[in-house]
Amino acid sequence: MMGRKLKWGLGGLALVVLAVVGAGYFLFAPPDMPITVDDPGEGGERVVLNDRPANFFPAPGAGPHPAIILLGGSEGGLQEGINARARLLQAEGYSVLYPGYYRTSEETKTFDMVPLETFDAALRYLQAREDIDTDRIGLVGGLKGAEGALLFASMRPEIRAVVASMPSSVVWQGFDWSATDFSQFSSSWSIEGTPVAYLPYDMPEWWEWFTGMTIAGMYEQSLAGLDNHGDAAIAVEKVAGPVLLICGEQDQLWPSCPMARQLEARSRERGGPPVEVLAYAGAGHAVAGAPREETDENFEGLASMGGSALANNEARKDNWPKTLAFLRQHLGAGEAAH
After folding, report:
1. What pLDDT digit, counting tens, does each position of 170-196 carry?
2. Name one Pfam family in it (predicted).
3. Whole-Å CA distances, 55 to 73, 168, 226, 321, 326
4. What are 209-265's pLDDT values in tens digits?
5. What are 96-120's pLDDT values in tens digits?
6. Among the listed residues 6, 21, 7, the one whose alpha carbon sits nearest the alpha carbon of residue 204
7. Which CATH number fits domain 2-337: 1.10.10.60, 3.40.50.1820, 2.40.240.20, 3.40.50.12280?
């Protein structure tokens, strides 16, 4: 009896541990975790980019308006939480395009070889609109969306400013929410079916999880192997415009502040664009975005991925106005902001 319990405990926990590593989340959701493709709601409209859905929130007025490509993270799909952020930016005078670049269908539910062509399609969509000022297009993204935003901006000089929250300094190996074997995955991103150079996960031995190894620690351990995979580093020095990075020192998902500093140092050493890092000592993975009221029923959820709810919210109170000021300085603001 005790032997069977021990066998289940080690095997079951090992499966859970392996399943969380690629996504960077403490994943206890079942493999059939629902794919969410929310409608844009009031003020938005559904568009299609390379057969993938996107929500578009046009700035009011004739324009031409500055525009933002807004990238969600590894939750995938099209989420109401990101729609809400898009509406906030729309109210500031920006036309906002939120592409569902992965996990919008069963065929796109794996974060492996995600085509950067979806971002190209987003850029072309904005450039083709007469109400968009094509000289004022920026990228805003968080977590895997921050990784994608920085990677894409390093390849497209049309992107004039980038805000990346909880950023990555490298392209990571792909993953699936329900996988237990990560050797099957190539790069997170692809171009014309070819994998972008990536940093593979340095998977700990199963027993290391019992001696204090964390998900963020796994990513830190993997980063130590970057010297052997130098081409996985994101060439932030090739971004055409300024970059704002936001991170929490207590991030329990991956080491976003150390990676933000890697990006800042690389750009400075290689003559790249100005990179500003906003790092918050008591905050974690919920460090960025519009602040919440303390009476909000979801307020305590800000502490679920590192730092206290209060510290995360105080960080938001500081960095959300700075984000808007950064975008206003480098992209301008549309008529709705005046």
Report:
1. 999 999 877 777 889 999 999 999 999
2. BAAT_C
3. 15, 25, 36, 24, 24
4. 677 778 898 999 999 999 999 999 999 999 999 999 999 999 999 999 999 999 999
5. 999 999 999 999 999 999 999 999 9
6. 21
7. 3.40.50.1820
Report the distance separating Cα 224 and Cα 206, nearest Å. Answer: 19
**CA–CA distances in Å: residue 95 to residues 66, 143, 194, 317, 336:** 6, 22, 31, 23, 11
Residue 203 structure tokens: 């998977």
* Length of the chain measured in residues: 338
Identify the residue whose tokens are 């500003």.
276
Q: Is the pTM of this model over 0.85?
A: yes
Q: Where are the alpha helices (DSSP H) in the chain?
A: 2-21, 80-91, 117-127, 144-153, 215-223, 256-269, 309-331
Report in angstroms the alpha-carbon separations of 267 from 9, 158, 245.
46, 18, 13
Residue 60 has pLDDT above 50, yes or no: yes
- The one-letter code for the residue type at 39 is D
Q: Domain locations in the chain?
A: 2-337
User: What residue type is assigned to position 114 of the chain?
Assistant: V
**Gyration radius from the chain CA atoms:** 20
DSSP at 58: P
Peptide bond into 258 cis (omega under 30): no
Tokens of 301: 């959820």
Q: Can you name the residues that pair with 11 across neighbouring β-strands?
A: none
Edge to edge, what strands does the sheet with 95-99 contain? 45-49, 52-57, 95-99, 65-71, 132-142, 159-165, 243-248, 275-280
Q: In what order do the strands lie in the sheet with 194-195?
A: 114-115, 189-191, 194-195
